[in-house]
Fold:
Amino acid sequence: MEFSQNQIDSIVQSVVAQMQGTTPASAPAYDSTQYNGRQYLGVYATMEEGIDAAADSYKVIRNMSVEQREKIITEIRKLTRAEAEIMAKLGVEETKMGRVEHKTLKHILVADKTPGTEDIQTEAQSGDGGLTLVEMAPFGIIGAITPSTNPSETVICNSIAMIAAGNAVVFNPHPGAIKVSNYAVDLVNRASLAAGGPASLVCSMVKPTMQTADVMYKDPRVRMLVCTGGPGVVKSVLSSGKKAIGAGAGNPPVIVDDTADIKKAAKDIIDGCTFDNNLPCIAEKEVFAFSNIADELMYNMQQNGAYFITAAQADELAKIVLVEKKNEKTGKITYSVSRDWVGRDAKKFAAALGIEVDDSVRCLICEVEEDHLFVQTELMMPILAVVRVKDIDEAIEKAVRAEHGNRHSAHMHSKNIENLSKFAKAIETTIFVKNAPSYAGIGFGAEGHTTFTIAGPTGEGLTSARSFTRKRRCVMKDMFHII
Ligand code: NAD
Structure:
């Protein structure tokens, strides 16, 4: 195999740093370029250099066999399992969000259940006219934007799928999670190198910004854009004029009717809602409960680590964890989440209200009306609002409104097939989980593959290798059919 100058420089840098074994006295032990003196592979000063390196690597990977690509993926899985806890700790330390034990599980889920090259399937049609093949081909270089909420998980999950499809990748990770995102970029490249692949198969940069994302949008060598993030960034990617996949925001509602196993529903909802302190976009964000079971549901939630706060306390908390913005022209007031509160532990929210709770408290619950900000805002915090409804029609109407047309995720606890079907049809979400915690929807403890890029707006659904391919047809006239 031939190496480009870029790749040789990366390898030399990495080997020298490893031989030195220690970090220079002035350098921090860990930043967006190195971890304890180990220089990251594939991390560049500028987006242009990142794209140059990805272009070199694409030339290498396009000539690799599928078996060779699968070897790289096997190595990525191996390293991800081995370093899951390190990345979980680094992620929590850098972003101040989430929980180490849950982030560790998320990395292991990515390693175990992200499909590899087996997801790439050829279609064939044969008959009197010969044989026609439709193959799933790589796009080339993919530009990927990743979030702060599942940073290294998304980098690794995207890398497995995109490499399985034969692409090279350049990432513009979330600036607030750049250190751990680049750790993951390096992990993928270490795996690639160990399996005989290029040393910069996936690339990133030291300091990503909106401007570096813009360079990625405009460079003609980047053939596809994939964005996992909030509404602003998804919109910017979809306006780029390039083939793009958008995995945007959600605000998943949960309905609990009076046929549900209420004890189990309460436990499932709290388990899902508190997973990684509610950071996953699929996690339960508000509950619509039938009036006749609402008290029993909330009682059982409290038996499972929820702490009940009054509606007045919820109003007080909203003023702390949400930021008010006034549109100068229209005077309209909107609210968004305060970055200082996203993904924090439940006890911090209790403390903000002057309540001291121990670590067994996993989230705060409250009973409010439908129009409450805790119902209508995608909080990504362990705070769960419960709204009382009289019947299934009212529940569906309110849940659909709270989901805001994101068509992302929704969940329901019921044994009534009619109610379940009615809600599933009305809500039109990419993921609909019945009688389980939300994370069952990404294959955690349930059937189906996993992904951390759920593409509702552009329709790919739970992305996998095939989402990052283009179809190419090859026709052999009259020949090569054998009957
Ligand atoms: P975010 O939207 O704040 O940031 C995502 C990335 O986009 C960052 O790198 C950020 O710097 C960059 N960015 C933001 N606006 C941009 C613009 N106009 N142009 C270029 N880059 C821009 O996301 P976050 O807070 O890290 O993640 C949380 C959001 O992402 C939530 O809304 C969540 O639901 C969503 N999310 C969705 C999925 C999914 O699979 N659908 C997965 C994870 C997160």
